[in-house]
Design goal:
The complex is a heterodimer of chains A (247) and B (540).
Chain A lengths: L3 E12 L2 E12 L3 E5 L6 H8 L7 E6 L2 E2 L4 H5 L2 E4 L11 H12 L4 H11 L12 H13 L5 E5 L7 H16 L3 E5 L3 H7 L2 E6 L2 E6 L1 H12 L6 H14 L1
Helix pairs in contact in A: 3-5, 4-5
Chain B lengths: L7 H11 L3 H15 L1 H8 L2 H12 L1 H7 L9 H28 L1 H5 L2 H6 L7 H29 L6 H28 L3 H23 L10 H4 L2 H6 L10 H23 L23 H28 L2 H10 L1 H7 L7 H33 L3 H5 L5 H34 L6 H9 L2 H17 L5 H19 L26 H24 L5
Helix pairs in contact in B: 1-9, 2-6, 2-9, 5-11, 6-9, 6-10, 6-11, 9-10, 10-11, 10-14, 15-18, 15-20, 16-18, 18-20, 18-21, 18-22, 18-23, 20-21, 20-22, 20-24, 22-24
The chains are: A alpha/beta (247), B mainly alpha (540).
The complex binds adenosine-5'-triphosphate and magnesium ion.
């Protein structure tokens, strides 16, 4: 078995003529938190969907735990937990029912963990999903994911819609997972969160992977290119954003 | 008050733009069926002898129940034309309007589009108002274009100006009426699915209620009370091309106005995303039964499927109720006997029953398609990834819905058989046997399976085109209506749908080869569908 949780090699995904992902290669090691950032429409969600085997790569491919993301999706999913960025739920089911469903569709179930997460995220599981706010729908997905014992967590803007307090709970949970050696692939627009949590970061723009590395490496690279060390993540992000605009 | 309606016209224009494909297709279909069929029908009952035979058929209680009343003086080509077609045109335009209204109100609300629009400077009632205006526009176009086309094509066959216009108006007004009724249900229910379901139920009840009034063979010249309770019954009594009575049309228009007012009142007091059925706290934990892909599918489909199985039982009961009259009618009418009965060994009641079973079988298509197309709507609503991103293979997920579709095909046909038998036992002196009801109904299963095959094939191969399944259902109804009810047309047209290959038991003998072939085709379509489904991208 390889040391990587996931490996993406020369991945290209086209929708008709439009190239959403252009020759992307990156990998995430076991026990590593990987931050995936980039502007809206850059291709973050598309990448995650390819990793999930919901979209098929046009060329190149992705491996998760050494298995082909498209062909062996079901096997892979036994060891994955996923939180979508836009959580649509069944209006007639309650949050509790959906969480139980999600946990059981993955396989194992851990009652105590479920209760702990419900508590941590302060979610009322007896309400119908129709009546949940956006943040609460997000919590349903988060509770289901964090209550499952997975090896790799694919999180697509998991904190969008969460209040700051809940954002903190999220950070704690990710740190807990990190400590127990899980792989985490985190796409996010909250740069402070990425800065706090991620070991390495990839910046994607218009379907192209601009940079991959630890935060320090990226800052050093930027400094080498235009002589000034970026003083924050925002600053770094803006520089690359301008570079990609210029292309 | 005025600010409640701000921006209505702009929204209407926007809705009409969204309608430019769907509604135009509907308009073309409706106009084709109202005017385009005239030349075809002149071949069928153009001369006196053919008309006399047709009138004898139409005068039987069964056909009156099925097709609507025949009026004194309605023995002309034009009169027969409207006796045979108007009812079906009303139902079709009604269905069209159910979808039209839901699409622009409740469905948009469900997809969070409404709140975006409401955040703009538009009034609280503007969306509903614009949807009503859109319905008025679309139905007015249908009314006028149908009227003109009927006149243009039918003038040489005795279709006059007033009759043609009244015919078009009846269609347009009923369309608008159903749009208004749907608007009310869209306020009451919390989902578009619920609103569509209740509106269909309403339409079906409107069809059934008028049967009771229309059973009298004698034309009393006035409208029977039971008929007047149903807008469909009322509009049939406009006596198009006979004495052209505009009063029923105006009456339905007035009820429409009331329904619209109710919808506005409800819309004003309710909150966005809410209905009038209050939400109570639900389970904090899932029951075991929910915790599998199949369990989830069943939970999502349970209510509509069970409702439809009961609904089919009810429809079958009400059709069966006519069987008693058939016997009485038989005794007093020898011509009819010689006309209809092909095999003297089989009672007329059985002959009639085997014909209506076709209709029941087509109704069974509805729950079957609801089940198989849910596969696609879950994907469209962005919920499929919750399931497929977990340890669930596509085959298993696909299999769950397909299994439910096959299961409901059996349950629905069986419920029809049971309903028919139950009411036959209670109304007939010598009831038709259960084995007859069972065999003649269940034999339609292979045809239903082909429909399932078609549905999942489309879901796998061309997910955007799943509406073709519903079109197929409408087309099957059309071909059976013309192919089976009127034998002179039963040639190739009937053979263009799977239903055309099913023997009418017990008149025909069982053709195992055809049944086997249909089953095989269904299996192949399903397999290809699954194969394609495994290979394609999942997208909204
Ligand atoms: N099914 C599809 N068909 C066509 N184009 C698509 C499809 N799905 C995504 N795209 C396009 O691919 C590009 C990348 O989309 P993606 O959802 O991956 O962006 P993202 O990085 O997740 O953005 P955001 O930060 O806004 O979530 C976008 O330009 C989008 O329009
Ligand atoms: Mg995204």
């Amino acid at each position: 078995m390889s040391d990587f949780s996931l490996e993406i090699t020369n991945l290209t995904k086209k929708f008709g003529k439009f190239t959403a992902l252009d020759d992307i290669s990156l990998s995430v090691k076991k026990g590593e938190v990987f931050g995936y950032i980039g502007p809206n429409g850059a291709g973050k969600t598309t990448t995650i969907r390819v990793l999930l085997g919901i979209l098929q790569a046009t060329s190149g491919g992705a491996k998760v735990f050494g298995m082909d993301a498209w062909k062996e999706a079901t096997h892979i999913h036994k060891r994955i937990a996923y939180v979508p960025g836009d959580v649509n739920l069944w209006p007639n089911l309650t949050g509790g029912e959906v969480i139980d469903l999600f946990i059981s569709l993955r396989g194992s179930s851990d009652k105590a963990m479920r209760e702990e997460m419900l508590e941590a995220f302060d979610l009322d599981p007896s309400k119908k999903c129709r009546t949940y706010s956006k943040g609460n729908r997000q919590k349903v997905a988060l509770v289901a994911a964090f209550a499952s014992d997975a090896d790799l967590y694919l999180l697509d803007e998991p904190t969008s819609g969460l209040d700051p307090l809940m954002g903190e709970v999220f950070v704690q949970q990710v740190q807990r997972l990190k400590k127990s050696g899980k792989g985490i692939f985190l796409s996010s627009h909250i740069l402070s969160e990425v800065e706090r949590l991620c070991d390495r970061v990839g910046i994607i723009m218009k379907g192209k992977l601009m940079q991959v590395g630890t935060l320090d490496e990226l800052k050093q690279k930027a400094a080498a290119e235009d002589g000034k060390l970026p003083d924050s993540m925002e600053d770094l992000f803006m520089r690359y954003y301008k570079v990609s605009e210029a292309v | 008050m005025k600010e409640f309606f701000a921006g209505s016209l702009k929204l209407t224009r926007f809705m009409l733009r969204r309608e430019r494909v769907t509604s135009v297709v509907w308009i073309v279909i409706l106009v084709f069926f109202s005017a385009g069929l005239i030349p075809l029908l002149t071949n069928m009952f153009g001369d006196d002898a053919e008309r006399a035979a047709l009138i004898t058929t139409l005068e039987s209680p069964a056909m009156r129940a099925f097709m609507g009343p025949l009026f004194d003086g309605g023995d002309t080509f034009a009169g027969l034309y409207s006796a045979m077609l108007l009812l079906w045109m009303l139902i079709t335009i009604g269905i069209m309007n159910i979808f039209l209204m839901t699409r622009h109100t409740r469905a948009d609300e469900e997809r969070n589009r409404t709140e975006v629009v409401r955040s703009l400077p538009v009034g609280r009632l503007s969306i509903l108002n614009a949807a009503v205006l859109t319905a008025i526009a679309v139905n007015a176009v249908i009314a006028i274009v149908s009227g003109i086309c009927i006149l243009a094509v039918g003038a040489e066959h005795g279709m006059d100006f007033e009759g043609s216009m009244l015919y078009g108006a009846a269609m347009g007004v009923f369309g608008l009426f159903m749009a208004a009724v749907t608007a009310v249900f869209c306020q009451l229910c919390v989902s578009s699915r619920g609103a569509i379901g209740f509106s269909f139920l309403f339409l079906m009840i409107a069809y059934m209620v008028r049967i009771m009034g229309d059973m009298n063979v004698e034309d009393s010249g006035s409208i029977p009370i039971m008929t007047a309770l149903s807008p469909i019954g009322l509009l049939l009594h406009a006596r198009t091309f006979v004495s052209n009575d505009w009063l029923p049309v105006l009456a339905v228009l007035a009820i429409t106005a009331v329904a619209v007012a109710i919808a506005f009142a409800l819309n004003r007091v309710r909150d966005i995303d809410q209905g009038f059925i209050s939400a109570r706290p639900g389970r904090t934990e899932a029951k075991k039964g929910l915790l599998s892909p199949l369990g989830l599918s069943w939970r999502l489909l349970r209510n509509p499927l069970i409702a439809w199985v009961f609904g089919l039982f009810a429809i079958a009961v009400s059709y069966g109720a006519i069987l008693g009259d058939i016997e009485t009618f038989l005794e007093s009418n020898e011509i009819y006997y010689t006309l209809m009965v092909i095999d003297p060994d089989i009672s007329l009641a059985e002959n009639f029953a085997s014909t209506i079973i076709v209709m029941l079988a087509i109704c069974c298509v509805i729950p079957v398609l609801i089940a198989s197309l849910k596969l696609r709507s879950e994907e469209k609503d962005g919920r499929i990834e919750h399931v497929l991103s977990r340890s669930v293979s596509r085959v298993r997920y696909f299999g769950g819905y397909t299994f439910l579709a096959f299961a409901v095909s059996v349950a629905a046909t069986f419920a029809s058989a049971l309903g028919l038998y139950a009411s036959a036992v209670s109304v007939m002196d010598t009831p038709i046997s259960f084995s007859f009801c069972f065999n003649a109904t269940m034999i339609y299963l292979p045809a239903l399976w082909v429909i399932i095959g078609l549905a999942v094939l489309l879901v796998g191969l061309i997910p955007r085109a799943t509406f073709i399944c519903w079109a197929m259902m409408g087309y099957s109804l059309f071909t059976l209506f013309f192919g089976r009810m009127i034998p002179s047309l039963s040639g190739w047209i009937g053979k263009t749908t799977p239903f055309g290959y099913i023997p009418l038991l017990p008149r025909d003998s069982v053709n195992w080869l055809a049944l086997g072939a249909l089953t095989l085709i269904a299996a192949c379509l399903t397999a290809i569908g699954l194969f394609a489904y495994k290979k394609r991208d999942m997208t909204a």
